[in-house]
Design goal:
The chain is α+β, with helices and mostly antiparallel strands. Helix content is 28%, strand content 26%.
């Protein structure tokens, strides 16, 4: 099941959002050992209070498996306000046709179902949800700051990152900024590689069930 949580519906998903922050803590603080802000067993940062959209993926058993955060590039973004060095002097993305994704995280067991390229099926489901959300807003791109590991995953999935600048060492990882295409073609490639037969966001307003 995929949840699409917009700011006006935060109050209906308090427990789900808390669970998301705990998942991010496990992934970014404990597993990847990134220098992130934490509150108890939750990872929370300044961009969680500027009313982002969240995509949450649950397994058929009800366990939260993954998440991603989405913000319009016309407001505060991680690339503009935290990692401008990754722009390499290029203009800051700022357009109603571009949103920023961040905090993409998966917490799945090693034996989770796989799809194309040996990637987890859950990875493709979140990628597909991101593109479907983008198409619902008539976006042309999603901009993101990510690490070298995720850049390789995106390439294997058939949704390659178009770099803005060169990668740089940030903390204990190598970070890079770039654009991800939002188009029906990109969606079809992800669906085919991920063995996804149709939309993962059935109702791209509040909830979606796969």
């Amino acid at each position: 099941m995929m949840l699409l949580i917009k700011p006006e519906y935060y109050g209906e998903f308090v427990e789900e959002l808390a669970e998301m922050h705990r998942l991010r803590y496990r992934v970014f603080k404990q597993r990847l050992e990134w220098e992130v802000q934490v509150k108890g067993d939750m990872e929370v940062d300044a961009f969680d209070v500027v009313r982002p959209v969240h995509l949450l993926l649950r397994s058929s058993e009800g366990r939260l498996q993954g998440c991603v955060r989405l913000l319009p590039s016309t407001g505060p973004t991680m690339l503009r306000d935290t990692f401008p060095v990754l722009l390499d002097g290029q203009p800051v993305p700022r357009s109603e046709k571009i949103w920023e994704s961040s905090r993409f995280a998966l917490d799945i067991p090693p034996d989770a179902p796989k799809a194309g390229g040996g990637l987890a099926a859950a990875t493709y489901q979140l990628f597909a949800a991101m593109i479907e959300f983008g198409l619902s807003l008539d976006l042309c791109n999603i901009v993101t700051v990510t690490d070298a590991r995720m850049e390789r995953i995106l390439r294997r999935a058939g949704w390659p990152l178009c770099r803005i600048g060169r990668s740089r060492a940030l903390g204990n990882t190598s970070a890079v900024a770039g654009y991800l295409e939002v188009s029906t073609g990109a969606l079809e490639r992800i669906r085919q590689a991920g063995q996804i037969s149709g939309p993962v966001l059935w109702a791209p307003v509040v909830r979606a069930a796969a």
